[in-house]
Predict the 3D structure of the following.
Amino acid sequence: MTETEDAFKKMDRMYRLQRHFYDLSRRYYLLGRDELLDQMAVRPGERVLEAGCGTARNIIKLARRHRDASFYGLDASSAMLATARAKIDPAGLTNVEVTTALADTFTHEGTFGLDQPFDRIFFSFSISMIPPWRESLENAIANLRAGGRLYIVDFFDLGGLPRTCGRALWWWLNRFGVSRWDELIPFLKSLEARENVASVEVRPLFRGYSFIAEIALADPQINGHPPAPVLS
C-alpha cells in the first residue's frame, strides 16, 4: 500500500462513524470558522477552494451567500464527502464541487479540470490534521493566482487559557488526530519575505484558543510592476 492509499484509508476509518455527528459536535469547539468566512470577501466569478472540506459545512455556507462564485472542496475521506454530497444536492447548489484528493498533491488542472488557478484557498481546522502541512501550504500557494489569498483558521497556542485547561484540551484533541505544529506560525510569518507574497497577517482569537491567518499573494499588475514579456 502506498502512502497516498494509506492516507485515504486512515481518514475513512476515522470518519466512517464520526461523519454522522461531526457538524453537531464540532460547532462547540471549532471556534473561528464563521469569523473566517465573514473575512473572506468573495467576489463574483471567483473560484474558492477549501482544502479538507469534510462535510462541506463551510463551502455550503459560502455558496449560499455568493451564488455568482464557484466553490470547490477536497478531502482525503470519501466517507466525509458522501455526507457532503448528501447535503449539497438537496440544497440545489450548482456552484459547489467536491472530490477526493490530498492537500499536498492536488492541482487546479488535474484535480478539478480548471484552466486557471484559484482566487482563494482556505484550510479550516484541517492543517493541524495534515502531517505534510508544509507541503500542503506550498501546494496551495502554487495553485493560487497572482493576487490570490490563502486563509487558515486552526488551533493556536491556548496561551490565554489556564495551563491545566490547555493541556487537557490538547490531550483530547490528539485523540482525534489533531497535532500541534510548533513551526507553523514561524513558517507563515516567514512567507512575507518571498517576492510573490504581499503580506501575512496572523490574528489570535478567543484568548489564543484559535487563530486566523491571511496570506496575500503579490499581483505585479496591481503593484505597478507588470510581468516581463515572454521572449520567443
About this structure: Residues 3-18 form the longest helix (16 residues).
